[in-house]
Automatic annotation (TrEMBL):
NCBIfam families: dctM. It comes from the Bacteria. Signal peptide: none annotated. This is TRAP transporter large permease protein.
Length: 435
């Protein structure tokens, strides 16, 4: 078989395995080991490459950023900081049509700067902002769509677990990836807010009937009490990384420690909650560890099959431009995003295209931002839009169906696609901050 046939069959085999219920890292590992065995007729070589994959990936020192930032995000979520920042933002946008939606986007953007998880954001704001929007007569589809759309900000605004995963796969600096994610994250947040304003002005039926929220302005003291702890945590973590005072691992440790202090000071932390956060951190870390190991053996299989070289020759033969290459890449991500979670999409497509992007002289940091934003769109698209499923399960409201969540998220998925096109067209938005 040709390298192209082997690569295509491997992707098809992985998708089939996932659909019949095989855990994604297991599917990646099984297909990779079987393919190497068939290619080299040497089962021992497959096992040896698996051992190398483990030692070369998850045993890296920088992998410690994953459990540290995960633990920090869980502590912040359990301490109720998400609802606090939402109340502040809601007060600021109370006299704007669709203001609660804008407040949700703004709060999600700030909350993302300490959690790095779209799942945590979706869970928190589904319980906090959706009931509030329904109370004031907003369209249920708009209410859940705003939460679903803005929850993906946790994947691009640093510290992001997806940026960390990409940094491991592409062998890039975690600090550089975090820096590069700032402007795209802010751009996506601002674009969401503008989109909601446009909807409120020209598509009032989608927004709902109530224009404003009847509430008093917050006092300066209330605002400071609710925002200072979160801003201080963001300053310590991201400020430490950007100034060079802390490495990403040290920043994760400092953030986790400060998050614990804040949670205990607010009396939102008990030994039981602390233990639950530790257990959940272990589960998430082990899952990501397994994914990275599986992706490492998968990329080695593709190298042995010669698929990257075959793709490079095909692109050169057809004289494909950078934008045509990126068009194919984005289409593949959008397709896989309807079937797999974001991390799996990144771990499957990046090893395929990385050898093609490097010879073109393109920035791998920029390529990582494009990859993460493109893969994020899958969080909002059926049949496996994880954020949508999390929102539905968190609400437990019979008035809102899963279809309503997906339909509400559709306009925001379109906005993300437009932002993705802008990021591809203007790489300086991602890497300009590094210069």
């Amino acid at each position: 078989m040709s390298p192209m046939e082997i690569g295509s069959l491997s992707v098809i085999a992985i998708i089939i395995c996932v659909y019949i219920g095989v855990y994604i890292p297991v599917a990646l590992s099984m297909v990779s080991i079987a393919a190497i065995w068939l290619l080299r007729d040497d089962f021992e070589l497959s096992i040896n490459l698996l051992k190398i994959a483990v030692s070369d990936s998850v045993m890296e020192y920088t992998f410690a950023t994953v459990p540290l930032f995960t633990f920090m995000g869980l502590i912040v979520s359990k301490a109720g900081m998400g609802s606090d920042i939402y109340q502040v933002m809601n007060s600021g946008f109370k006299n704007v049509k669709g203001g609660i939606g804008m407040a949700t986007v703004g709060a999600n953007g700030i909350f993302a700067a300490v959690t790095g998880s779209s799942i945590a954001s979706a869970s928190v704001f589904a319980k906090v902002s959706v009931p509030q929007m329904l109370k004031y007569g907003y369209n249920p589809r708009f209410a859940v769509g705003v939460v679903a759309g803005s929850s993906v900000l946790g994947m691009i605004i640093p510290p992001s677990a997806m940026l960390i995963i990409y940094a491991f796969v592409a062998e890039q600096s975690v600090g550089d990836m975090f820096l590069a994610g700032v402007v795209p994250g802010l751009l996506l947040t601002l674009t969401y807010m503008i989109s909601i304003w446009v909807m409120g002005r020209f598509f009032t039926n989608f927004i709902g009937g109530t224009a404003f929220v009847e509430s008093d302005w917050m006092s300066l003291r209330e605002i400071l009490e609710k925002t200072v702890p979160l801003i201080a945590l963001i300053t310590i973590v991201l400020g430490g990384i950007y100034t060079g005072w802390l490495t990403p691992v040290e920043a994760g440790a400092a953030g986790a420690a400060c998050g614990l202090v804040i949670a205990f000071a607010r009396r939102k932390m008990t030994l039981r909650i602390f233990w639950e956060a530790l257990i959940e951190t272990g589960h998430i870390t082990a899952s990501i560890l397994f994914l990275i190991t599986a992706a490492s053996i998968y990329s080695r299989m593709l190298g042995i099959a010669g698929l990257p070289n075959e793709l490079a020759e095909m692109l050169e033969q057809h004289q494909m431009t950078i934008f045509m290459t990126m068009f194919i890449y984005v289409c593949l991500m959008l397709f896989l995003g309807t079937l797999l979670d974001t991390a799996s999409v990144i771990l499957i497509v990046v090893p395929l295209f990385l050898p093609l992007i490097e010879p073109m002289g393109l920035s791998l940091v920029w390529f990582g931002i494009v990859t993460v934003v493109g893969a994020e769109i899958g969080l909002l698209t059926p049949p496996l839009g994880i954020s949508c499923f999390v929102i539905k399960s968190s609400l437990d409201d019979e008035r809102i169906s899963l279809k309503d969540v997906f339909m509400g998220a559709l306009p925001f998925a379109f906005v993300m696609l437009l932002v993705l096109i802008v990021l591809i067209k203007y790489p300086v938005l991602s890497i300009g901050i590094l210069n």
